[in-house]
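Because discrete structure vocabularies remain unfamiliar, we turn briefly to a single example record, giving the amino acid sequence and backbone structure tokens:
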Amino acid sequence: MRSRACVFAGLNVYSGMVRGRLLRRELLLRTDPGVVDLFPEIDGASPEVRALKRDMACVARDPDVTALVVGESGTGKELVARAIHRASPRGDAPFVVIDCAGLSPTLAEDALFGHVRGAFTGAIDERPGPFERAHGGTVLLDEIGDLPLDLQMKLLRAVQSRTIQRLGGRQETSFDVRIIAATNVDLATATARGRFREDLYYRLKVYEIRVPPLRRRGVADIRGLASVILSRLAERRRRVAPAIDPQVLDSLVRHSWPGNVRELENILECMLVAAGGEPLLSVRHLPDGGRGLGSAVAASLSSTPPSPDRVREMLHRNDFSYGRTAAALGLSRHQLYRLVKRYDIRNRAGDP
């Protein structure tokens, strides 16, 4: 009786998920993205952002289409992918990120597909990979342009067949996920130069979404983003958000933003810390009085990367959170991963 009850309970959960998925899809099909904002987490009202949201709505409506999100470092590609997942019929299922730039060469296949017990020394239990863990949901292949060629072939096979084989296993396991890939690399050029497989490129580029750089989004978007970001940073510190001096806003508007939204967040956080509890962010709170505006990102784009001691210090200060450390250094996550590997920096447990 107990086993029968468990089966019925499982069927109820499954049918509830299916009903929710169908209702969400029906709502999406009825919604006019020109009237209702499906993606409030994407701030901005410029023509570029409106076009972005229209593309996002097209992908969200179709729960199976594969999408390629393209944009410069710091533009918010992962946020776009998460927003598409949330608004789609798959929104109640898991959203799993694979950081292709951070895959260790020795453990990359395990990170992509999981492993069976005994697959290697220390594999005492079975471990499902991200495609299995995201069943019914979405897998984001972040920084796909940095995936090594040998792994591109294995990923292509999985994308084509919608099945994976765990490391050390012989059984093919099917999966049901939407795949979104994101990159700041020009994959067409990488393909032409033999650095990225052409067949994988076209498998991933079913629907391409381009995230606009901040410098092309206009004055109103920059001012609006500055206000939203500052409010969020202040709330995190349980403080009232200070006002922004018009001169500061003029400086922000004139800046070219090579690091995009991530750079804007870094600068505003630096100013908030410099201001303490002052009610107004003024020019004197800008990095180097405005001369160093965006210096963190400029440093990351220059030929001289942060020193090993600087990277190690920021990693420890941020408890080895790669996301927070990369933001603090003005780097993208894959740039930080490369530096960690180059400098052979290890965490407290001794792992890279």
